Amino acid sequence: xxxxxxxxxxxxxxxxxxxxxxxxxxxxxxxxxxxxxxxxxxxxxxxxxxxxxxxxxxxxxxxxxxxxxxxxxxxxxxxxxxxxxxxxxxxxxxx
Amino acid sequence: xxxxxxxxxxxxxxxxxxxxxxxxxxxxxxxxxxxxxxxxxxxxxxxxxxxxxxxxxxxxxxxxxxxxxxxxxxxxxxxxxxxxxxxxxxxxxxxxxxxxxxxxxxxxxxxxxxxxxxxxxxxxxxxxxxxxxxxxxxxxxxxxxxxxxxxxxxxxxxxxxxxxxxxxxxxxxxxxxxxxxxxxxxxxxxxxxxxxxxxxxxxxxxxxxxxxxxxxxxxxxxxxxxxxxxxxxxxxxxxxxxxxxxxxxxxxxxxxxxxxxxxxxxxxxxxxxxxxxxxxxxxxxxxxxxxxxxxxxxxxxxxxxxxxxxxxxxxxxxxxxxxxxxxxxxxxxxxxxxxxxxxxxxxxxxxxxxxxxxxxxxxxxxxxxxxxxxxxxxxxxxxxxxxxxxxxxxxxxxxxxxxxxxxxxxxxxxxxxxxxxxxxxxxxxxxxxxxxxxxxxxxxxxxxxxxxxxxxxxxxxxxxxxxxxxxxxxxxxxxxxxx
Lengths: 95, 483
Hints:
The structure holds two protein chains of two kinds.
Chain A: H1 5-14, H2 21-38, H3 73-77, E1 83-84, E2 87-88
Antiparallel strand pairs in A: 1-2
Helix pairs in contact in A: 1-2
Chain B: H1 6-14, H2 20-38, E1 41-43, H3 46-62, E2 72-76, H4 103-111, E3 114-119, H5 153-160, E4 166-171, H6 177-183, E5 186-189, E6 209-214, H7 217-227, E7 257-261, H8 271-286, E8 290-294, H9 302-317, H10 336-347, H11 350-362, H12 368-389, E9 395-399, H13 415-419, H14 426-431, E10 435-442, E11 448-455, H15 460-473
Parallel strand pairs in B: 2-3, 2-4, 7-8, 7-9
Antiparallel strand pairs in B: 1-3, 4-6, 5-6, 5-10, 9-11, 10-11
Helix pairs in contact in B: 2-3, 5-6, 7-15, 9-11, 9-12
């Protein structure tokens, strides 16, 4: 199934990936080929088949609602691109 | 010593014939000599490894050593290890020194094993040739013009070249088994849920599973004893009794029923691979096994189903890389959205971006039912095929990969061709079954061929028995590349 350039542009935006025109065009060709491979699926009759979302059909385990994590803010923020006074810094979003 | 099994190494360490420091030093020297050619490691910290070795020697002297105490193990760079650069093969994590240990890493630490280094891999485990790594491709030790397979290619090359005693891998669509096959080593992907995914950087969470890679089945059993087990920090970790995976290694194979899926022996497999697989099946018959023809009619759909489900899960998992809390941030940007878009565009490589886009598309409004839900339904059909097949056989065998190792760059421009190289391994992940690959001969250009052994759920001990008995009767697993 061929994707339009507009489709690819929209997907890049949703995925938060900056792409120039050349990259969008290359992605359009490659994604169209991949969706050609995926199209094989569409002919299969799956009426009445329950979707399999996980490898094991087991119920999600529950645990007690209590704090299990210790405070490791300094260790975690040591690998952050930009922090100040224990806060993660990003460009201003509110005027 | 570097050609010895883990059992022999462990015995030598406990008998003080060699110290862990000496053994670790031997491997570090070999890495220094050969890694510039093979590029199997991304990060080495010799001082840290030797420090662990000294601690292991103390434990050995105190008589409190376990099976893996003092043994140098390499770790795929997908496992977070405290104090270690953990890149997942990506520029996105080029500066990420992990503040914590993955469950697998802490299990090896508790066992007293040495972390010898972090192995190269396809970026975020997305690839079948190791060519998508930001840190350059790994070379196959049997022929450095060829790929080692992927995504655990650095691990496979390191084990094959005897740069470590054994190593870890992860397998989402074949990433343990295919590189094991292409590099002539043994590798096992356990049943989904047997090894905790805590601290293992996520690609496709319903498919990802860690497993051991080594030179023979007996080594894999020892490694799995350390890696497997319940961990409450992974919500999909299974609560099961602890198993000894070595327990059945020496059982005879008399009466074993081997299922041969006709779909795995149809068009697409190279004649050289077919010849080696046929010879291996012949060997199993000599060992007392019988062969049953089976069919996995929906397995041909596993590649399209996988390339919907895995990218869908990946697009969600990789949304965490936003340039805010860790990893790469673009140097110049105008506002928050621009920072996200540029950081991700510059931090991710081409294949990762491709898969994020596929996943974003199939999950987007209007396409969800046609792609994602349809793929999940076919996933069930694929899993049911295996359930039916196991009514007639104990294990399933076939090729791991349709060809031996291909040349670097050979499939570079065509993602679809690359995706098809995982045609025999993907169905196993979709079903959540355990699978392994063991060396069973050589094909074109004297490159190794892997035999795939697929077990029923939780049948790892039997698969290891099946592999071990083959390795008692043959010597493919002990062949080493000339380097």
